[in-house]
């Protein structure tokens, strides 16, 4: 493959400083003081243990909390969120990435799909918040990767029919939760928040990489549900994602989801965010 000859002003073109596509200083702020105060007196109402190489669904009413925890060993999870009352409103990984960056942490939000585009859940606590960005450009809780899936596995290794990657796990879990066939559930499965996963882009080729997650038993990521949400969480077959996924090679562990209800009156006059205010006339 031949490369085009660089123009005389190539260095000058490269030296142009970037600008942020979506400055986020005007986003509605998350009231972490209120949320954390309400969480302090909240009571546990439910829990779901997600088996290794499998997925489970759970529901969280608006104004309640949910926590995803590592309980036995280093393990990453792939999280989908849907509006319980309208499953077509679902987590929008790409827009969350555009608004907050490649990885999200405390005070940042999981945003929903068009035309709703509103906060679905806000991260209120992250025990891996200390990690930051490492020397390789890696960080945790990414909104880069789409989820491991059997279609890419089959594409890259012809003939592979692996059924326990996160896409398939989430499809089975949602189908069981809804009581519908797999073919009806699958189109609702979407790009994920990679909980606890440590990822980035290589500096030379720009390729998506993963490395061993820093998560340890007892670590957790905790959310405030801004609307009624149904979650789907897959305990990835990649385990801590230090080597490979879409196989049974890695050591895998379960993940725990717990749901907490605030005490009466703890949230004051808080209300769920309204759907996006754009009038949807699209110039017509």
Number of strands: 13
**N to C succession of SSEs:** HHEEEEEHEEEHHHEEEEE
> Percent of residues in helical segments?
10-25%
Specify Rg, calculated over alpha carbons. 20 Å
Strand % is: 25-35%
| Number of separate helices | 6
Shape: globular
Helix-strand makeup class: alpha+beta
**Low confidence ranges:** none
Please tell me the overall pLDDT: 97
Q: Return the domain count.
A: 1
Main beta sheet, described?
7 strands, antiparallel
Distance between the termini: 46 Å
List the helices and strands and how they pair.
Blueprint lengths: L9 H5 L17 H9 L2 E8 L4 E6 L4 E6 L6 E7 L2 E5 L2 H8 L8 E3 L7 E8 L12 E4 L7 H7 L9 H13 L3 H4 L7 E9 L6 E4 L8 E6 L3 E7 L19 E7 L23
Antiparallel strand pairs: 1-13, 2-12, 3-11, 3-13, 4-5, 4-9, 4-12, 6-7, 7-11, 8-9, 9-10
Textual characterization of the structure:
This protein is of the alpha+beta class. It has one domain. It is 16% helix and 28% strand. The strands form two sheets. Strands 2, 4, 5, 8, 9, 10 and 12 form a seven-stranded antiparallel β-sheet that branches. A six-stranded antiparallel β-sheet has the order 1-13-3-11-7-6. Strand 6 (109-111) and strand 7 (119-126) form a beta hairpin. The model has no long low-confidence stretch (mean pLDDT 97).
């Amino acid at each position: 493959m031949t490369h085009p000859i660089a123009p005389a002003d190539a260095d000058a073109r490269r030296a142009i400083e970037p600008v942020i596509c979506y400055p986020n200083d005007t986003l509605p702020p998350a009231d972490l003081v209120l949320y954390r105060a309400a969480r302090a007196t909240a009571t546990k109402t439910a829990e779901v243990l997600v088996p290794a190489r499998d997925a489970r669904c759970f529901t969280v009413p608006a104004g309640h909390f949910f926590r995803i925890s590592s309980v036995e060993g280093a393990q990453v999870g792939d999280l989908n969120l849907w509006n319980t009352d309208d499953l077509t409103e679902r987590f929008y990984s790409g827009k969350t990435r555009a608004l907050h960056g490649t990885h999200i942490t405390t005070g940042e939000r999981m945003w929903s799909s068009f035309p709703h585009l509103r906060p679905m859940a806000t991260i209120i606590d992250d025990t891996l918040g200390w990690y930051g960005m490492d020397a390789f450009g890696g960080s945790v809780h990414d909104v880069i990767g789409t989820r491991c899936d059997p279609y890419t596995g089959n594409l890259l290794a012809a003939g592979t029919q692996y059924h326990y990657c996160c896409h398939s796990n989430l499809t089975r879990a949602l189908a069981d939760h809804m009581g519908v066939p797999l073919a009806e559930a699958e189109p609702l499965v979407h790009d994920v928040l990679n909980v606890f996963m440590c990822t980035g882009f290589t500096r030379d080729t720009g390729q998506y990489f993963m490395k061993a997650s820093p998560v340890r038993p007892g670590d957790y990521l905790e959310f405030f549900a801004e609307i009624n949400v149904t979650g789907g969480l897959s305990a990835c077959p990649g385990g801590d994602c230090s080597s490979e996924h879409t196989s049974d090679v890695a050591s895998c562990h379960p993940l725990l989801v717990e749901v907490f209800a605030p005490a009466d009156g703890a949230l004051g006059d808080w209300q769920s965010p309204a759907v996006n205010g754009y009038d949807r006339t699209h110039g017509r």
